[in-house]
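Treating backbone geometry as a discrete language has practical consequences that deserve illustration. In the encoding step, the backbone of a single protein was reduced to a row of integers, each denoting a local shape. The amino acid sequence and the backbone structure tokens for this protein are reproduced below.
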Amino acid sequence: MTGKKILDAKQQGKYFWLEMEGKTHPVMHLGMTGWIKFKNDDTSHYYRKPDDENKPQEWPPRFWKFILQLENDSNEIAFVDPRRLARIRVVEAEAKELRNTTPLKENGPDPVIDKDILTEAWLEEKLKSKKVPVKALMLDQANISGIGNWVADEILYQARIHPEQYSYTFSSAQIAALHKAMMDVCGTAVGVLADSSQFPESWLMRYRWDKGKKDKNVLPNGDKIVHLKVGGRTSAIVPRLQKKTGKVAGDVGSADEVSEDAADSQEDSTSDVPRMIPHPKMSKAKAKKLLIADEIAVAEEAKSKRTRTTKRKANSDNVDADAGVKEEEQEYVMPTKKRQTKTIQANGSKTTKPKAAKKEVKTEDAVAEEGTRRRSGRLSGKVV
């Protein structure tokens, strides 16, 4: 880096880089705990505690990983990260080709800088092509760059969409609302440099942090805020406004791909197989397996019913066509608990009559001898 000029600073989603002279460019990702600090500008002033607001910035800052010294000694740039979750890469490429190079090329379009790509039509096609909860799709940087956990919750709240609902189930009107909220939230947050004190008072982000605190998890108008897990992340929603209008996680899952019969059987109200409801404390993997097994069982039961119905109909048709067969079927009598024998009368019809039970007559010697033996683990010798 020595002696090179910084030509520009650019960003895509959660990645940013310094565009340098030549083909060597540092590409960075702050992760959960990384930050960039300038010696002559306190970039994290709004993170400070009230008691520390007027204190001068410490330099060099704690947890710095590298310091970039500029030609003007009055300024330096420090990359800090107390937990080493951030990443720095030196990428060899032409500046104009950086976004077509790893790791940037593996990421989707950015709502702030790629508005010509991330259009409403593009978003609708992306949502329809996936079968995942909409929030999980939004958090996946391979789909859309730059949307984090609270940003996704804010977008879904503004669009009045439930985060668990599957991406392919939304109407065009809902997708339009989602696209508008995405552009507004991301544009506003970047416009005020992520200073949450400048966010609109109507944003959910201002009130979502009191998880588990009774009577505090509410909006100013009294609407309750509920927290749940979606895609492995905690999600804040307002149930009164964010309704489920389509299939959600647990309704379909992998059972969509199990079989067509399983899908058909979901709508079969005549099924006698009791439907499985996962326990709330059951692991997601186990619940998913049980749901799939449940769908297969319902499908097989429905298929069995259809088979029996088809056979009965075929038998009925055969009986109508052949009176002799019909008469023969009517003559069949289900066996009773008593042993029965079948006899054929002179006219060819079958009748049944109980078979006489044989009575065993035992001598006194036989009874005495039997009393001394064991049969099937039990003492015998009782005289009937």
User: Anything to note?
Assistant: Residues 284-321 form the longest helix (38 residues).
